[in-house]
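agent> fetching stored inputs for the magnesium ion docking request
agent> found them:
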Amino acid sequence: MHTFEQYFLMNSDDVIQYVKAKIDSFQSAQQITCKEIGDGNLNYVYRVLNTETNESVILKQAGTTARISDEFVLSTSRNKIETEALLLQHTLAPGLVPEILLLDETMSCCVMEDLSHLTIMRTALTNFETFPNFAEHITDFLVNTLLRTSDVVLNHKEKKDLVAKFINPELCEISEDLVFTEPFHNNFNRNEVTPGNEQFVQTHLYENEELHLEVAKLKFHFLNNTQSLIHGDLHTGSIFIDQNDTKVIDPEFAFFGPMGYDIGNVMANLIFAWARGRAYSDKEFTEWVENTLFDIMDLFDTKFRAAWDEHATELVAKNADFKEHYIQNILKDTAGMAGLELARRIVGLAKVKDITTIEPIEDRLKAERLCLRVAVELILNPSDFQTGGQYLTALQNALQE
Ligand code: SR1
Ligand code: MG
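agent> prediction call returned; pasting tokens
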């Protein structure tokens, strides 16, 4: 019988015991099932169900290494960062993240609301499902979590306390390596270029000095700009969705970084879905993705401006030209970061199913080159991407080449 007073990595039986011990409504439950359902790269996720009452919860625990590979040795305290990010995001963007029921720092686990009536967005997009409310919901999430954790809104001392609380060096290092470094150099064995695209990657990424300069600028921006509490890994695998609801999950990479990293991740991962839609000639789906890309930029801009006017407390932020300058820079960062995400998911360690499951292989190779052409354009010319329309033009141009 465990007391859960010292950390160990739980199995399904341990999780049942744990939930009975820690969650009041499960205390006297007789019929409990528990299944590991995690499909992320880092942690273990269990769904615990009381089959008599149908009540269910999710338990997420961090192991001492990443699930994807033992080569990433990580502090289990990432679970605390994730849970505290969710708690804060819940106050800023209610209804758009799961409810937390318990945080256990000793066991490096949390218990949260079960969202398994929803689907992981990447899975749904891979099946060409569309979501009419997504642009509205994700821009509500982005504007509220990003603007309201920035110095525009927060008291600067309070913000510095939060910056310290969310220092996340190990998870940031993963992004620094996998997103900002490895995909642009051919001497990292975690890169895996699909056979047939070697020459393209060599020319457009590995030997592109102009690109390397822009990537270096973006990397130092990521390292040095404590702009807002960002999610840090906001791809479509970190979103649960259905026709009504959108819930953002998995912020274990959260730290104070540039807002554009989150917005760019959302844009890039929709571009993967778009490239897949093109590969399978699904016109309705690709049109929905295009409209969504357009709407996200448009809605973000409109809502961010309105939220600025409503919530800004910093005196200099009342200057209209400063507001303009600030927003232009967020959108510029968004383009650069979207380009990085597009490149790293094609070449680097953590690939995306939207692209890897495209068949036949010639179509996958073509979709990869399409994403990489868009990536290079976004990274080289980020200032040219202030509107959704400019993204759509870049997608059309990349198709021509
Ligand atoms: C070692 S973790 C690999 C990737 O999975 C996560 O979801 C992040 O995107 C990370 O880069
Ligand atoms: Mg994740």
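agent> quick read of the result: The domain at 119-400 is CATH 3.90.1200.10 (Aminoglycoside 3'-phosphotransferase; Chain: A, domain 2).
agent> awaiting further instructions
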